[in-house]
Amino acid sequence: MLLRLKASMLSALRIVSLMLPWSGTMAQAQDFDRNDLDSWLSSEQTLAAAKISANLLGNGAVLASPSRSGPDYYFHWTRDAALTIDVVLDRYVASNQLEDRAAYLRQAQNYVDFSLKIQSQPTLSGSIQDHFANFGEPKFEVTGIGYQQPWGRPQTDGPALRAVSLMRIYKLALQRLDAQQQFSASMPGMKNAILADLEYTAYHWRDQGYDLWEEVRGQHFYNALVQQRALVAGAAFVKTYGVPGDAPRYLAEAAALEAQLARFWDPGRGYFVETINRSGGLDYKSSNLDSGVVLASLHALGENSYLLPNDDRILASAHALRSTFATLFPINKVSRDRAQLQLAPAIGRYPEDRYDGIGVSQGHPWFIATAALGELSYRAASLYAAADRIVITAQNEAFFADLPGIGQRLRRGDTLARGDAAFRDVLDALLRSGDEYLARVRYHAAMGGELTEQFDRYTGYERGASDLSWSYASLFKAVQARSQLIAVLQK
After folding, report:
1. Which of 12, 282, 395, 491 keeps 20 to 30 A from 132, CA to CA?
2. Helix axes 187-204, 98-119, angle to 10 degrees
3. Which helix (H) or strand (E) holds 390?
4. Would you give the DSSP letter of residue 409?
5. Residue 412: exposure state from Cβ atoms within 10 A (0-12, 13-18, ≥19)
6. In the prediction, which pLDDT does 339 show?
7. CA-CA distance, 235 to 233, in Å (whole number)?
């Protein structure tokens, strides 16, 4: 439910929001202790999977949201769909129930079929003869027809993410008997679709296009990092399943993308900027600070990943987001719930955001971005645990200074190794930091756990598109990363 407030009410609500812990569409606070957080996250992960399933249409279209007005998100976005289907595959891999596994495989099969259909569609993004330029179309009608109205196009990240999701399905079909039976007839078509997405990515990554928020034209950190991941994975894929001679070309393009990514680091600002070579779209993102940088590091995770979540510069960018939004959103002045559980700051897309979930006024926190900061903490901790070493540097020291309970004890130049008491303390603090972000998500979720796109910067009420698939996928991935970290810490 979108809360619409008259301007005369805003100043009063700004004051009230600092006094009362608002939460959910029913405006009721949800109090919980640390043990209860485990229970809520478990049930919320199950809800997220169910809500995602409800947004998967029988023809394979993946709804961004069931909302058809205010805003209309009743479309299949290539990017969102790939990120969403990854959760379906996670559920399939984790399930021991034959009936559930079969349902997940059918959903994945439908996604494959729909992906093949839209790859063949003419779109306003370009010609299929131009190295599959039609793939740059960001969203499609649920019938599979490319969107025909003005939009921010092309968007070059979608084909890379789709290639990664299809490669995962393809490999599962080779490794598991039930998946092999499900996909036996579609394997040739799936392989061709993967190769086409890789060709698009290898050829078009240098093109000017729009960012993941569909607002700025230029070259973007998010696009470049997920493209780099797709090409590295694609090189390994074609060596085994495609044309091995294409692998060196994909690796060369991936290396060029790494060089491109280095250009996004701004030492003066101390974080990765999202866009360089801007050539159109919105012109008021003066900070160039964007949660897309954190999302990119998470969505590009895989074998031989580049710019991992514990990279000093990724952590510096995460700190910049946290410190900026902590003071920007009035709701962040409510830092604890009634049970005194600490809440991390709610995180938005970027500080200058003006999209309010339905129109243009002021931007608000997003569930996607807030959960992503939590996931980053969990994954960074797991990576440090695997490396048996943490080094506090000039770039990451501000991030570590924010960690609860230990941040002020750490100094630039400290090197912590497994066996040091402080090493385990840092890992525990990263777990706690991630929990505080997910506690913030819970604090603003609806009473039933439903997640929209945004929640109001003043009141904490949910707003924007209802049951957003990407919101559920982002939370699901964060909880999954948390569980993996806890398993590591219990060894």
Report:
1. 282
2. 50
3. strand 389-391
4. G
5. middle
6. 67
7. 5
Do the domains at 1-58+328-491 and 61-307 have one common CATH topology? yes
- Pick 61-307's CATH classification: 2.60.120.560, 3.30.465.10, 1.20.1250.20, 1.50.10.10: 1.50.10.10
Q: 3-state class of 279 per DSSP?
A: strand
Among candidate residues 65, 25, 76, 142, the one with its CA nearest the CA of residue 453: 65
Pull the structure tokens for residue 27: 């405006």
Q: What is the pLDDT of residue 338?
A: 67
Q: Tell how strand 216-220 and strand 275-281 pair up.
A: antiparallel
Residue 281 gets the label, from left (phi > 0), alpha (psi -120 to 50) or beta, of: left
Give the length of the chain: 491
Yes or no: domain 1-58+328-491 corresponds to CATH 1.50.10.10: yes
Per-residue tokens: 209? 């296009």
Compute CA 434 distance to the chain's CA centroid, rounded to the nearest angstrom: 15
The mean pLDDT values, 10 residues at a time, for the chain of 491 residues are: 34 37 37 71 94 98 97 98 98 96 98 98 96 97 97 98 98 96 96 98 97 98 98 97 94 98 98 98 97 98 94 98 98 85 96 97 98 98 97 97 90 94 95 96 95 98 97 98 96 84
Q: Would you state the structure tokens that stand for residue 348, as one six-digit string?
A: 């938005």
User: Where exactly are the structural domains of the chain?
Assistant: 1-58+328-491, 61-307
Using the 8-state DSSP alphabet, how is residue 177 labeled? Answer: H
CA distance 473 to 479: 10
- What six digits make up the tokens of 424? 């385990």
Give the dihedral of Cα atoms 275, 277, 278, 284; nearest 10 deg.
60
